[in-house]
């Protein structure tokens, strides 16, 4: 894939090196020439000095034939403008913008832009690590609004059904691992002691899940 990265800070440089390592063609754009010093010797892509939302700079970076663009500068405004130009003007298939203001991230998602909010994700991740004493975090989705967690079925729930761990729009059992084998359950699947349940839940519904699991 051909990927353009706007911003060569810590995130941009790390992203560029990772994508380059995986064999993708990467072009990094940054206004400061010294920013490219963050790129390690293993980086095999291209660098362009200039404004990340300037049309001529984007054209020079090959935006008309790229497969994706990530705007990851420290400025929400720059990231938004670059992402919207890539998506709406140049029709880039995959565009992601990093936005530090969660409110802007929500508005951008409504406009169809893929966004990552480090602040929201970081807050939810810290809460997760501090408070999920019996829930094993696996992955955070979006900007941290949805978590995927694992938990062992307690004796209290043995013989109950998946339906009793399901809350529409909040908590969903997506898989069960039983005796080393993982399968997708139905709402009527019976839970057994020792089962490992894999759940998707809203980050705000962790306490409700604990109540369903009998941990309160």
TrEMBL record:
Residues forming the RCK C-terminal domain are 136-215
Q: Give the matching Pfam families.
A: TrkA_C, TrkA_N
Domain of life of the source: Bacteria
GO MF terms here are:
potassium ion transmembrane transporter activity
> Which keywords does this Swiss-Prot/TrEMBL entry list?
Ion transport, NAD, Potassium, Potassium transport, Transport
Q: Which GO terms describe its cellular component?
A: plasma membrane
Kindly give the PROSITE patterns that the UniProt entry links to this protein. RCK_C (PS51202), RCK_N (PS51201)
The RCK N-terminal domain, residue ranges:
1-120
PANTHER family membership? POTASSIUM CHANNEL PROTEIN 2-RELATED-RELATED, TRK SYSTEM POTASSIUM UPTAKE PROTEIN TRKA
Q: What is this protein called?
A: Trk system potassium uptake protein TrkA
């Amino acid at each position: 894939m051909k990927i353009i990265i706007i911003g060569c800070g810590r995130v941009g440089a790390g992203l560029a090196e990772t994508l380059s390592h995986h064999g993708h063609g990467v072009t990094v754009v940054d206004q400061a020439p010294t920013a490219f010093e963050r790129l390690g010797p293993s980086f095999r892509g291209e660098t362009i000095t200039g404004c990340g939302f300037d049309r001529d700079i984007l054209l020079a970076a090959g935006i008309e034939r790229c497969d994706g663009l990530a705007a990851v500068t420290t400025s929400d405004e720059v990231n938004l403008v670059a992402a919207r130009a890539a998506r709406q003007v140049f029709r880039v298939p995959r565009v992601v913008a990093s936005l530090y203001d969660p409110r802007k991230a929500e508005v951008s998602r409504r406009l169809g832009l893929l966004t990552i909010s480090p602040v929201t994700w970081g807050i939810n991740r810290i809460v997760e690590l501090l408070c999920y004493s019996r829930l094993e975090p696996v992955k955070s989705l979006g900007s941290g609004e949805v978590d995927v967690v694992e938990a062992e079925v307690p004796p209290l729930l043995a013989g109950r059904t998946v339906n009793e761990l399901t809350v529409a729009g909040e908590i969903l059992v997506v898989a069960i691992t039983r005796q080393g084998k993982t399968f997708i359950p139905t709402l009527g699947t019976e839970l057994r002691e020792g089962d490992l349940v894999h759940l998707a839940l809203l980050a705000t519904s962790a306490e409700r899940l604990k109540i369903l699991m009998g941990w309160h």
